[in-house]
Structures are given as structure tokens and as C-alpha cells.
Write a structure and sequence with these properties.
Order of helices and strands: EEEEEEE
Shape: elongated
Number of strands: 7
Number of helices: 0
Distance between the termini: 11 Å
Helix content: under 10%
Structural class: mainly beta
Strand content: over 45%
Largest sheet: 5 strands, antiparallel
Length: 77
């Protein structure tokens, strides 16, 4: 199973209450995620940082990253 660093863009904002329009921040943020590539389709890459070696394999902390939001990918060795 490959371990990758995936850089991708995500949404920013969504305040918890009312705010003045001129104080809004209109942007996206770039995120770096690292983990095992558990699954990959045309639409999503599933990264998981924790995998057990139990009789029935378990995972924890997985994230589904939309392929169209990926900026860069790099395999770690």
C-alpha cells in the first residue's frame, strides 16, 4: 500500500453568525494530507493514517479527497 502526501484545495469560512459583507474573506485554502492510499476511483482518493493488523482489519481517521481538488501528489518511500 502506497503512502502519499496529497496537497489539495478546500473551502474556507462559514462563520458562526452574522458579519459585515466587507469583512468577508473570499478565498480557498491549501491542505496537505499524508496517509496510506486505501482506495482510489475517478472521483476520490481515500487516505487513512491508521490501519490495524487485527483479524478483521480496521482503519481510523480516513479522509475522502475529491480528485478534482488535488493540486499535487507525492509518494513517500
Amino acid at each position: 500500500m502506497k503512502i502519499e502526501v496529497i496537497e489539495w484545495v478546500d473551502t474556507f469560512g462559514c462563520s458562526s453568525g452574522w458579519e459585515f459583507e466587507e469583512e468577508m474573506e473570499c478565498r480557498v485554502v491549501e491542505v496537505k494530507s499524508i496517509g496510506f492510499v486505501l482506495k482510489e476511483t475517478e472521483e476520490v482518493v481515500v487516505l487513512v493514517p491508521h490501519i490495524s493488523n487485527a483479524e478483521r482489519r480496521q482503519v481510523a481517521g480516513y479522509i475522502n479527497i475529491p480528485v478534482r481538488q488535488i493540486v499535487r501528489r507525492r509518494e513517500l518511500q
